[in-house]
Please model this.
Amino acid sequence: MTNDANQIEIVPIPAFSDNYMWAIVDTKTGRTLIFDPGEAHPVIDFLEKNKLTLAAILITHHHHDHTGGITALISRYPIPVIGPLNDGVTSLTKKVNEPDEITITNFPLTFSVLAIPGHTKGHIAYYAKGMLFCGDTLFAGGCGRLFEGTAAQLYHSLQKIAALPDDTKIYCAHEYTVKNLQFAALVEPENSEIQSRLQKVKTLRENNLPTLPSLLSEEMATNPFLRCHQTNVKSSLENHAGKQLADKIEIFAELRQWKDRF
Ligand SMILES: [Zn+2]
Model:
């Protein structure tokens, strides 16, 4: 089965105060995939309003704001629920991990599973040509908190994402972009690309539009969590920490702690 980007549409369904549940719609058949349904009702409303059929649910990690709608959805639609092998998600019909490839019956995309631990111990992402559904690991302008893994694990997970093609679209699960880029501007005050991106996303939010998806190339230029190898990021973190930092993982750990208090 080949990836056919021409017949799909990707739509963010808002949930809670700042989550997005991404829907991929096959416009030829109406068959639809939902990622991380934290709530069921917005998904049901979306499907009914647009006369779509739910084909499968895909889960990135176990947190309730990504899984809370599963039970209500599967009691209504008898569909597969695909999710991480090692993250303690109940109600899965198929457990997957890297390097699994996922096909869904009568759906024109094949996904590769990436293991990206750190935010949780078994967090995964789904990659199909040109698009990455990465839950709470990479955000636009930032990254997820370290709840279960180590700084080294999350650093390596983000490096795995950084190695994908530059034009990969990043479909993350929260609208945190403005605050993330305000922090990025504090870390790299001299980075003009951060300033111009911040203005762009503020305008989007003032018009109640999502700032997502972003492009991996934009993240490489403006997201400090992907820029620990830059000398200006290193010196900014060393100034903040008041000590020398030995390697990229120490820089990343200090950056994550700084952001936690921001
Ligand atoms: Zn989470």
Remarks:
- Residues 61, 63, 119, 136 surround zinc ion (CB under 6 Å).
